[in-house]
Specification:
Length: about 180
């Protein structure tokens, strides 16, 4: 598949009814699903506009992370919020930080030193008491701990939830994702 050629000359930020968008040659940018790409702040719209402006002869989607996040929120997070929250809660039930090495004592000591403060943060700040396993055998987190992590995620608006989802799915840790957002 060939890259899409840059087809516009001007990039601007538009405002309508308290939302902000990007226009290319005066035409509003839309998400892949065809929805207007409206953002909650002028700063975000300006940053997305800068990504569009930075495109040279061909449009490189990989160089537009804020636009990618914007259209993910619009096309996936908002219409599928319940499914996103369920997926995030599942990550909490299998959080990467809860699995420590059982064979390599040096690695296990490093995991204890670096990861346990985040497990403690989840317990102390959120009330999620997570169990830690040694080795590869799965640990069953309590329904209460998973629900607590899920409730923390549910407290965010769709834009923050979209960032949390991206952070958690890339890093494998609901705890680190929540700590990053907080």
């Amino acid at each position: 598949m060939s890259a899409k050629k840059r087809f516009y000359t001007s990039v601007d930020v538009s405002e309508e009814a308290g939302s902000f968008g990007v226009t290319l040659d005066g035409r509003a940018v839309r998400s892949p699903a065809g929805t207007l790409a409206q953002m909650p702040s002028r700063a975000l719209a300006a940053a997305v506009a800068a990504e569009w402006q930075a495109q040279e002869q061909e449009i490189e989607p990989a160089s537009m992370p804020l636009f990618s996040l914007t259209v993910t929120v619009i096309d996936r997070v908002t219409p599928q919020r319940a499914a996103i929250l369920q997926e995030l809660e599942a990550y909490g039930g299998n959080d990467l930080l809860c699995y420590h090495d059982g064979d390599d004592s040096e690695l296990a000591a490093r995991q204890q030193r670096v990861w346990m403060p985040w497990i403690d943060w989840a317990r102390d700040s959120l009330g999620a008491d997570l169990q830690v396993a040694t080795g590869i055998m799965p640990v069953s987190q309590s329904a209460a701990a998973c629900a607590t992590l899920g409730e923390a995620a549910a407290s965010f608006d769709d834009w923050v939830l979209g960032m949390l989802h991206r952070t958690v799915t890339l890093g494998g840790s609901m705890v680190l994702g929540l700590a990053f957002i907080n």
